[in-house]
Amino acid sequence: MKVSKELKVGVIFLIAVGLLIWGINLLKGFNIFEKQRYLYAVYHRVDGLQRDNQVLVNGLSIGKISSLKLNPDNATIVAELMIQNEVDIPANSIARIYGTDLLGSKAIELKLGDSPRMAQSGDTLTSEIEQSLLDQVSDQMQPLQKKAISLINSIDSVITVVQTIFNEDMRNNLSASITNIRNTLSNVESASGNLDTILMNEKYRINQILINVESITENLKDNNENINAVMANFAALSDSLAQSEIPQTLRDARNAIARIDAIAQRLSNGEGTVGQLLTNDSLYIELENSTHSLNKLLEDIRQHPKRYVKFSLF
């Protein structure tokens, strides 16, 4: 059986197209002859993610994004991940969109979980979106923006306070205060001039006072030995007083005062004869009556001695 040239050309063309497709996919990192799995992830936004972007695990490409479809029911985006590597992917792994460079290129990184169950073809993974560089800068700038706004508000408050302080009345008060300060300084200057004048007028007396002070100092210096002798005498007197029996004398005096106080207490209470004399009026009255009777008796004896004395010669 003879094969026509047209059939040979067609077969060669198909083989070439197949090799071309296989080579292009191979250059992209995908082998169409390997076993493929399809996983899904649902996002509210994709931020520049495109079809044929890579799917990575720890920086290693294990697949690509085969399609991005919009779900009209809830306006979410379903990303279909074609996995061409035999990497085991736990079912609780996270499909995170992140930026691969500063130009905004995107890819999906699979953060492997720890579930013992492996994801099967058709499963939906948990989705996550990394903050973009603009969002990160915005987050960093937000505290600075708040501080700047607070600083501007503070400056505005300070300006308002300054404007309030430096109103017309305050300016007048400030001018009056400056005038008073100027007058005070003038008075201080005048007082300083008067003090200089007084010092000049009393210069002779001040010199005399200084001379007298110097003379006293010289006298003290000349009598230094006498002063030392006096201090030594005081020290000796102090030692003598310290060595004397002054404490014993003070104790004896204290005891004597205590005994006198006890005697005075007994006299005050009417104890003893002296106490009776001091506290009992009847004894005083009886003594006074006895004295009066004795005086009458002596007066009667003086006037009529014969009644009491008889002289007999025999």
Keywords summarizing the entry:
alpha/beta, 7 strands, 314 residues, 8 helices, single chain
Estimated helix fraction: 55-70%
> What oligomerization state is this entry in?
single chain
End-to-end separation in angstroms reads 229 Å
Instruction: Please count the beta strands (DSSP E, at least 2 residues each).
Output: 7
Sheet with most strands? 7 strands, mixed, barrel
Strand order of the largest sheet: 1-4-3-2-6-5-7
Strand content: 15-25%
| Low-confidence runs of at least 5 consecutive residues | none
Average pLDDT, all residues: 78
Shape: elongated
Predict the CATH topology of one domain: Elongation Factor Tu (Ef-tu), domain 3
* Element pattern in H and E: HEEEEEEEHHHHHHH
Structural class: alpha/beta
* Second CATH tier, the architecture of one domain: Beta Barrel
Output the number of helix runs. 8
Classified by CATH, the class of one domain is Mainly Beta
**Radius of gyration (Å):** 65 Å
Brief account:
The protein has 314 residues and is an alpha/beta fold. The chain has helices at 5-27, 133-165, 168-201, 203-222, 224-243, 246-268, 272-279, 281-303, and strands spanning 37-43, 54-57, 60-71, 76-83, 94-99, 106-111, 124-129.
